[in-house]
Amino acid sequence: MAVGLRAPARLYPVQGLRLGALRCGIKANRQVKDLALVEIQPGSSVAAVFTRSHFCAAPVILCKQHLALQPSARYLLVNSGNANAATGQQGLDNARSCCAAVAAAGNVKVEDVLPFSTGVIAEQLAVEPIVGAIPDLVDMLDPDGWLSTAEAIMTTDTLPKAISVQLNIDDRPVTITGIAKGSGMIKPDMATMLCFVGTDARIEPQELSEMLDLLVASSFNCITVDGDTSTNDSCVLIATGAADVKVDRNHRVFFDALQELFEKLAQAIIRDAEGATKFVTVSIEGAVSVADARCMGFTIAESPLVKTALFASDPNWGRFIMAIGRSPVESIDIDRIDLYLGAVRLLHNGLPDPDYRETLGQAEMSRDEISISVNLNLGDASARIWTSDLSYEYVKINAEYRS
Amino acid sequence: MAVGLRAPARLYPVQGLRLGALRCGIKANRQVKDLALVEIQPGSSVAAVFTRSHFCAAPVILCKQHLALQPSARYLLVNSGNANAATGQQGLDNARSCCAAVAAAGNVKVEDVLPFSTGVIAEQLAVEPIVGAIPDLVDMLDPDGWLSTAEAIMTTDTLPKAISVQLNIDDRPVTITGIAKGSGMIKPDMATMLCFVGTDARIEPQELSEMLDLLVASSFNCITVDGDTSTNDSCVLIATGAADVKVDRNHRVFFDALQELFEKLAQAIIRDAEGATKFVTVSIEGAVSVADARCMGFTIAESPLVKTALFASDPNWGRFIMAIGRSPVESIDIDRIDLYLGAVRLLHNGLPDPDYRETLGQAEMSRDEISISVNLNLGDASARIWTSDLSYEYVKINAEYRS
User: Fold this and answer.
1) Do A226 and B305 touch (CB under 8 A)?
2) Per the residue annotation, which of A155, A175, A192, A299 is the catalytic one?
3) Which CATH architecture best describes the domain B279-399?
4) DSSP letter string, B383-401
């Protein structure tokens, strides 16, 4: 049911990165891959952000420990089908055993390997199938392994999510390729479910880390399916430097391309949101703070009554007013609020627009891609949140998830 | 689909109150009542709390104005089918016209009449059918009009909600009777959708107001269906004094009976929640503050993934862990958390209980009434939140609400 999302177009290899993916047997479905490995050439810069859940998963804890020991990485090991979350010391030991097996096969230190997991929470991870598959995984590493890896990290996703761009900087080709997964339990807080982006540009580690924070703020931190934040959210940005072109956030062509790639990956998660029939952009302008704008945007985007009206294509915009009204923002003056559905003005200075007609609202609500815009007319801060509707299919997918 | 909710048992009249209800034509459905009037004898104490929505409805604004002019009331006028919210000056004028018509018929001042509305947001209220019906309404006022009034204030409710108790205090009979409505757009913040409770005990106005705050804190402020707060939430407590028995919050028999009545009315809203197939109690103990306990309780209770697992009777309690993990509480130590589903321990000190078996969890999740209990083992504060599941029917009801 993905909204305006197609299978990935051509994915360019990134010099300095090789990838492989296979089925090792974590998932019950015998048709799908569930394990992937990314090899990073020595000397690359690696930055990562993670979920802020109190209950962050064992692989997230281990990633942070490994990055604290040395702020780079040589391998990323990713499994789907099991989150390895709420699994205690045994979960940490299991994740470390998997990393150790990769380290032995690749002749690197265990802290050079970063583990990632996604899937069911509170079940122990089966180590043997993963460790047993690592020799085969290493053998199949290939610069063209991006699509296969994007497929291997899927859970309830209906399509793999991957984007690739090539730039010409200083007469040299520079590539950026990224993959992501996620469809439900989506309200990333500093990172999304799983996202891996690589470039062969050279970026200093500290700069890469600060760039990642900026990129995530305007992409994965602006999406919500259900307001539910995962225990395993992780986002990694790798710069191998193999293209021998040095850039930083001030290189507009490069940074704009990278930002667009992050935003499109984040939007791809919403387009493929569980049960989604609509892709919805909620824009808040004229707020006194970004925090206020984001708070109101997420309140509208996560309201079950707004989401069911969107599913029904019903211009019952009293529910938008309800959500604006209940959003716990600091500063609001309802007599100054303008509210739009697409180009149709619903409220002006807090009152129903006398020119509004139900047919106008109906036409906007019937689209696949819908925008809801609020101008608080109080300040200069704004936010833009992407979300999906709440359909029978969302309930069905999540009622039947484990069956 | 109400869970464990039956039609009201016998409702005792409250001396000093008369009620009437009829159909005046606000609702399209010709079979249902949509207007009610409550007459309060002179000298009664009246306390009220209202929604904290920024976009509070015209009748809520007018109620506050009238109560500021004189802290009592002689009439409550209630319509269903139209919320009279986001209707600007015209909405206020319309509500005032209705109050004026009641005031003329009852020979009281306009500020002696409190208006209440519930229904569709952002449509102007039709004044003529209401004003035209007032003579008939006044004629039909009856001490036994409680059930008829409970029916007239329903919207998506499947059953009227009303409770009545009689006490013997100082050898005198004292009656408490209350009615409520609400089924969706339910996360009252200081008050519920609509609730009117009357007693013939005598309670001083200031004491009545403070009692109402206490009562609402442990009842209507502990329920959520969808986290969506209405523009029209109002809760009114009336003490006529006609039984000539004076009480205050320290009268345990009276206050306990009143508190139980408030809690049962709040629970009745959850039992009749839109599409509900489960009645769920989320208990948080051992928190460092009530705010933390309530925050975590509501995060669990409002998580779409928890709610769909409840609907599916699926003991996928990894989602409880996810919700605990994402709840923005101040103080948490996951290594101290105990988690229970009914009597079955899921987590002990943050780790899966080794004695847990899927069959045990399945048995608990298959019940109509489910409890989820978290002990943070950090402090003495607690909270108890009542909620419902998220079913196909919830989506259906709210996708088709206006059609």
Assistant:
1) yes
2) A192
3) Roll (3.10)
4) EEEEEE---HHHHHHHHST
Helix (H, G, I), strand (E, B) or coil at A212: helix
Please report, to the nearest 10 degrees, the dihedral formed by the alpha carbons of residues B353, B355, B356, B358 taken in order. Answer: 150
**A17-271 and A279-399, same CATH topology:** no
Phi and psi, residue A228, nearest 5°:
-95, 115
Interface test with B, best of A322, A332, A336, A391 (most B CBs within 10 A): A322
Question: Where exactly are the structural domains of chain B?
Answer: 17-271, 279-399
The pLDDT score that the predictor gives to residue B89 is 92
**Chain A neighbors of B305, CB-CB under 8 A:** 184-185, 226, 228, 398
- Residue in B122, B314, B350 closest to A321 by CB: B122
Q: Provide the pairing of β-strand A234-239 with A194-199.
A: parallel
> For strand A344-348 and strand A338-341, is the pairing parallel, antiparallel, or unpaired?
antiparallel
Cβ separation of A390 and B304 shorter than 8 Å? yes
Interchain CB distance below 8 Å, A350 and B88: yes
Least reliable range by pLDDT among A30-44, A57-71, A337-351, B388-402: B388-402
Task: Let me know if A156 is a catalytic residue.
Answer: no
Whether the full predicted model's pTM is greater than 0.90, yes or no, is no
Which of A315, A318, A295 lies closest to A370 in space, CA to CA?
Answer: A315
Euclidean distance between CA atoms A56 and A116, whole angstroms: 12
- From chain B, the residues in CB contact with A374 under 8 A are none
Other CB atoms closer than 10 Å to residue A169's CB: what's the count?
Answer: 16
The class level of CATH for B17-271 reads: alpha beta
Q: Tell me: the pLDDT tens digits for B335-344?
A: 999 999 999 9
Best of A185, A356, A395, A403 to substitute, by most chain B Cβ atoms within 10 angstroms, is A395
Ramachandran assignment for A173, one of left (phi > 0), alpha (psi -120 to 50 degrees), beta (any other): beta
In one-letter notation, the amino acid at residue A129 is P
pLDDT at A190: 39
**What is the pLDDT at residue B191?**
42
Verify whether the Cβ–Cβ distance A55 to B334 is below 8 Å: yes
Q: Inspect the interface and report whether the beta carbons of A185 and B352 lie closer than 8 Å.
A: no
